[in-house]
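Entry for the shared binder. Reason: the reviewer on the internal report wants the predicted structure included alongside the sequence.
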Amino acid sequence: MEAAVNAVEVRNISKYYALSGSQWTRVRRMFSSSTAGAGRELCALRDVNFSVAPGEALGIVGANGSGKSTLLQIVAGILRPSTGAVTLNGRCSTLLELGSGFAPEFSGRQNVFLNATILGLSQEEIAEKFDAIHRFSGIGDFIDQPIRTYSSGMVLRLAFAVAAHSEPRILIVDEALAVGDVAFRQRCMRRIHELRAAGVTILFVSHDAGDVKALCERCLWLERGTVRGLGEADEVVAKYLATTLNPSAHGAGTATAGTVEAKVDSAAHQPVGALPKAVGALPKGTHRFGDGAAEITAVGFPGTAGSVDFLLRTSLRAKRSLVSPIIGFLVRNKKGETIFGANSAAENHPLPAMLPGEEHAVDFRLTMPRLAAGVYTVSVAIAVGTSIDFRICDYIEDAVGFTVEPEARPVDGYMELRCSAVTVHRH
């Protein structure tokens, strides 16, 4: 029985850039030994190895300058590696730099045919798909205007529409969706999920951890050109966030991440209105990290309060003096997508300073919208500072969960907001 062939094979990839400022020196180095001038090289990537199975989605995370874009450009064949090799098995479409491959003097229509041809489609196939590409891009009559007259968002729309309709077997996306408006970004993510469901192999770079966890089974974490982590997406993303949110631990390998055992209020097992029914104890494998200046000691749903549908209570203890503590939470669905969240600073409810050993309990009360049926988790954190400049003391991912049971009238999308009135105006 033959072994399955991977869609993407990356073996021992390294990329070096000479730091010499002289063009003649760079030319001379082309004909010198590989070790010459090694001390004047910038290492963008070092010994990167991974493979992606057909139909698998691999997320790639890392700080700016970690080598993510360089890696994708090498995989796509845009850059040549200094060492190592890449093997692709299947038609590959890329969405990397905005407008790359677009001719600025050509119209959008002409660029659709040009780029789709480069991606391997015949003229007949492009003509058949053109209306769908044009409709998805949403740029209207600009399709017959030169690309140089487009905004960056319009270029993104057209580039993504071409890449997503070229019947790729491998799709490479590099954070390009960040410049799009919210509606188009959601449309793009839906299309990426459709391609994923259809068995397309995806390499996906994003700074949005929720998108990575929702789309990808596995994740690659790059730091300064080297592989810091490769494995199950939840695990790798949690470790990456631990170092990102704890600058003092960054690069030192001292951030803590592991299972936690926190208390869950017994009342959390009771339904809250027509909504949550607690899953129970803290899920195994929940990630926890922070600098230890304070700790979360309990998380739960103590019950309703009058007309309030949802009450989340988090208890905390200071281990060191806290000048400006902030506590907050995020609710995520089963895919890891953030549905909503809040924190004490954003809600303009500053917490008092705390001395070592002091304990507080903080309640968040809100009227919950009707959520789509499914399992939800609540992540909680305590930090010090401001909403913009803060330091994480304790973060518990998926600290507690609840389920929303299916109802006779299903929810379209993620949630249903109450509509107070529908008015018909006669003209």
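Summary line for the report: Confidence is low (pLDDT under 50) at residues 248-285, 304-308.
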